[in-house]
Write a structure and sequence with these properties.
There is one protein chain. With 267 residues, the protein is α/β, with parallel strands linked by helices. The protein has a single domain (4-193, 224-245), classed as NAD(P)-binding Rossmann-like Domain (Rossmann fold, 3-Layer(aba) Sandwich), CATH 3.40.50.720. It is built from eight helices and seven strands; from the N terminus they run βαβαβαβαβαβαααβ. The protein has a seven-stranded parallel β-sheet with strand order 3-2-1-4-5-6-7, sandwiched between helices. Strand 4, helix 4 and strand 5 (139-144) form a beta-alpha-beta unit. The chain starts with 11 loop residues before the first strand and ends in an 18-residue tail after the last strand. The structure holds nicotinamide-adenine-dinucleotide. Residues 16-17, 19-23, 40-43, 46, 67-69, 94-97, 117, 144, 146, 190, 192-193, 195, 197-198, 224 line the site of nicotinamide-adenine-dinucleotide.
């Protein structure tokens, strides 16, 4: 049972990217602390599995398939939220993919698509949530950023880094604009967290694992469940005076200024 400070009973949350990885872990953590949820992901089967696991905890979870890079679909998701729950207390903007290519080769179409995934989609969801939270007297929003929100990674991450930098500033601007309405907006900046995409990249180039580990003083790569504690903290009253923060979840990477690598970024 959560202590009263971390109790989310009666609260309603939206989490995107909830089929797997950090989105699923965040959704499970919020449900374990008492929240009901609307979940979304492009992966319908995966998000349905997450909703079933949450139902097994005795909480309500509605799985949906929306593409968060499309504002019309984000708005549809909030319309469904209004109908099914009638309120929102927490938004977790987790979904979003990148396209990697060297800056001299990447197409502007790909840069724009990454921006739609990570910036426009997150902003549209913040706007929809913020409007509702203003009417209800407050709430909490968490945007997933990255080490790339505040440091360069190299290795073809230029579109991702530009977008994640914008996510950091989105978080700071919204926290500044909305704090008077009781709305807190924070960002979590993860280092390398194992997911199928990262595992594939490491399988293709095994030296990447050691390269990443050399930048993580804690001595291991991240696991999606590492986001559970921060998710509950930031959704709950336990963090009621924390807003506008960019919180590393990185095993110490940013503290030693390691970024994506301590080697030459092109190696
Ligand atoms: N894994 C890492 O090392 C890492 C590090 C820093 C930041 N991040 C960021 O954290 C977030 C989650 O990462 P993860 O490792 O849990 O990812 P993941 O690949 O395990 O899961 C991402 C989920 O988002 C869904 N998704 C992707 N695009 C979508 C869209 N347009 N609309 C709806 N759903 C969509 C996918 O179907 C998938 O289920 C991403 O924004 C990622 O950029 C990841």
């Amino acid at each position: 049972m959560p202590t009263a400070l971390f109790d989310l009973t009666g609260k309603v949350a939206i989490v995107s990217g909830a089929a797997q990885g950090m989105g699923r872990a965040m959704a499970m953590a919020l449900a374990e602390a008492g929240a009901d949820l609307l979940l979304t992901d492009l992966n319908e089967a995966g998000v349905t599995r997450t909703a079933e696991a949450i139902a097994g905890l005795g909480r309500r979870a509605i799985p949906t398939r929306h593409d968060v890079s499309e504002p019309a679909q984000v708005r549809q998701m909030f319309a469904l939220l209004d109908k099914e729950f009638g309120r929102i207390d927490f938004l977790g903007n987790v979904a979003g993919e990148s396209i990697m290519a060297p800056p001299e080769d990447i197409t502007l179409e790909d840069v724009e698509q990454v921006w739609r995934n990570l910036v426009l989609g997150r902003f549209c969801a913040c706007q929809e949530a913020g409007r509702r939270m203003m009417r209800s007297g407050g709430g909490s929003i968490v945007n997933i950023g990255s080490l790339a929100s505040i440091t360069a990674l190299g290795r073809g991450h230029v579109a991702y880094s530009m977008a994640m930098g914008a996510v950091a500033q989105m978080t700071r601007e919204l926290s500044t604009e909305w704090s008077g309405h009781g709305i807190r907006v924070n960002a979590i900046l993860p280092a390398q967290v194992l997911n199928p995409g990262l595992e594939k990249r490491i399988a293709e180039k095994p030296s990447l694992r050691d390269q990443f580990l050399s930048g993580i003083p804690a001595g291991r790569l991240g696991h999606p469940d590492d986001i559970k504690g921060l998710s509950v903290l930031l959704a709950s009253d336990a963090s009621r005076w924390i807003t506008g923060a960019l919180i590393p979840m990185d095993g110490g990477n940013l503290a030693m200024n390691a970024g994506g690598s301590v080697r030459h970024p092109l190696s």
